[in-house]
Amino acid sequence: MDLSDNLADIVARVGRSVVAVHGRHRMPSSGVIWRRGVVVTAAHTLRREDGIEVTLTDGRTVAAVLAGLDLGSDVGVLKLDGVDLDPIGSGDAHSLKPGHLALAVARADDSGVSADFGVIGSIGGPWRTWKGGQLDAFVRLDGGLRPGFSGAALADMRGQVIGICTSALMRGAGIVIPGMTVERVTDELLAKGRVSRGYLGVGTQRVGLLDAWVNKMNLSFSSGLLINSLAPGGPAEQAGVLIGDVLIELDGKPCRDMGDVSAALGSASIGQQLHIALIRGGERHACSVTVDERPQRNSCR
């Protein structure tokens, strides 16, 4: 009974800062009061920009204003006017180990607080998502998330909230967006409504490099990125990149997959020149491209 009572106490305590977010049709998602007047949730659950509402812990439903979305890290930030509820305290995701027990705490407006008891499946260092976002730690839950649990708070067995849950960053598995990532992204979204990332204006496909190319150019890797589309007037097109080129290096670093490209296109890269190496017609070709800010709704990297 001691374990059960302890779990129930954690759910009740964390649940005081967990809300239901009505930003899509039918089932609401969950959100967490991260700062006074600020709710964070999973960005993919917000399907509209206007008419978003939040059901608070006391049962009231209030209007929320969308401060910004970052689909790369799947963090959405909402502002609440005239709501002065205590924010949640966050812990450090790096304290977790595979096998640690955890509690996901969610809220639906019709049934109140809900909990899901699970296990930390794996944990690692900083992780770049397939959407280009950077999480400060990789934390995978053992299994998927139940409906309505995206945006829920994830607490350890000491009752510390180590982040929020999402089902959008890895197929078939729940991922935790660490508290330190939520803090960083929330700061940027509140300041300017978006998270800035670099942009080359290329569409790519990973391809294997011919052995002859690898030997001729003395490469230490065997894959590159085939340029299969160019954004009209984008940085890469202006630099003279052509469809059919194979991208192999960015600023002297191997470019083997889109993860290597995303790693070079953080906010600090905007406005900077990148020296890129290409294979064109079986020969090495070099040029420089000035990185632009990535359009918020453009699928090119």
UniProtKB/TrEMBL annotation:
<dbReference type="InterPro" id="IPR041489">
    <property type="entry name" value="PDZ_6"/>
</dbReference>
<dbReference type="InterPro" id="IPR036034">
    <property type="entry name" value="PDZ_sf"/>
</dbReference>
<dbReference type="Pfam" id="PF13365">
    <property type="entry name" value="Trypsin_2"/>
</dbReference>
<dbReference type="Pfam" id="PF17820">
    <property type="entry name" value="PDZ_6"/>
</dbReference>
<dbReference type="GO" id="GO:0006515">
    <property type="term" value="P:protein quality control for misfolded or incompletely synthesized proteins"/>
</dbReference>
<keyword id="KW-0378">Hydrolase</keyword>
<dbReference type="GO" id="GO:0042597">
    <property type="term" value="C:periplasmic space"/>
</dbReference>
<feature type="domain" description="PDZ">
    <location>
        <begin position="206"/>
        <end position="282"/>
    </location>
</feature>
<dbReference type="GO" id="GO:0004252">
    <property type="term" value="F:serine-type endopeptidase activity"/>
</dbReference>
<keyword id="KW-0720">Serine protease</keyword>
<dbReference type="InterPro" id="IPR001940">
    <property type="entry name" value="Peptidase_S1C"/>
</dbReference>
<dbReference type="InterPro" id="IPR001478">
    <property type="entry name" value="PDZ"/>
</dbReference>
<protein>
    <submittedName>
        <fullName>Serine protease, S1-C subfamily, contains C-terminal PDZ domain</fullName>
    </submittedName>
</protein>
<dbReference type="InterPro" id="IPR009003">
    <property type="entry name" value="Peptidase_S1_PA"/>
</dbReference>
<keyword id="KW-0645">Protease</keyword>
<comment type="similarity">
    <text>Belongs to the peptidase S1C family.</text>
</comment>
